[in-house]
Design goal:
With 132 residues, this protein is an alpha/beta fold. It contains 3 helices and 5 strands, in the order αβββαβαβ. It has a 5-stranded mixed beta sheet.
C-alpha cells in the first residue's frame, strides 16, 4: 500500500512513511505529509478486536492531536469478507455484522462523533477479491 501511495504522491512532493512519528512519541501506521502538514492513517483488519473503536481511541486520541495534523486523520479498514480468518468483533451497539465493505464503512462513520466527521475520514477497502 505504501509503495503504491509513494509512487502516486511523490511527484507532487508528498511524503508517505510507514510508522510515522507523531506527538508524544506515538507512531501512526502511515503518515502522509508535506512540510508543515501531516495526515496520520490508522489501519485495521475488519476482524481486529478494536476495529469499531480505533478511530476514536487510537487515531483521534493519539494521532490527530499532533500539531501538524491539526485534528485530521484517516481511519482505513481492510475488508476481507468471506476470506476473513477470524470472527469479526461485535458492534458496540449490538448491530448485526456488516455484510459488505460499504456497509461496514457506513457503520464506522456513524460511530464517529458528528462534530469530528469533517476531520476524520473513514475508508473501508475491499481486499476480499470478490465482486458484488
Amino acid at each position: 500500500l505504501i509503495d503504491f501511495m509513494r509512487a502516486a504522491l511523490a511527484p507532487r512532493g508528498v511524503i508517505v512513511e510507514p510508522e510515522g512519528h507523531m506527538v508524544a512519541d506515538k507512531r501512526a501506521d502511515i503518515t502522509i505529509s508535506v512540510p508543515g502538514h501531516k495526515i496520520p492513517v490508522e489501519l485495521k483488519r475488519d476482524y481486529h478486536v478494536d476495529v469499531w473503536g480505533a478511530a476514536e481511541t487510537q487515531l483521534d486520541r493519539l494521532y490527530t492531536r499532533d500539531p501538524e495534523a491539526s485534528g485530521y486523520g484517516i481511519y482505513c479498514v481492510l475488508w476481507f469478507g468471506s476470506k476473513r480468518g477470524s470472527k469479526m468483533a461485535s458492534h458496540p451497539t449490538g448491530k448485526s455484522a456488516p455484510k459488505s465493505a460499504a456497509e461496514m464503512e457506513a457503520m464506522l462513520i456513524e460511530l464517529v462523533p458528528a462534530d469530528k466527521r469533517a476531520r476524520i475520514a473513514i475508508v473501508v477497502v475491499d481486499v476480499s477479491g470478490t465482486t458484488a
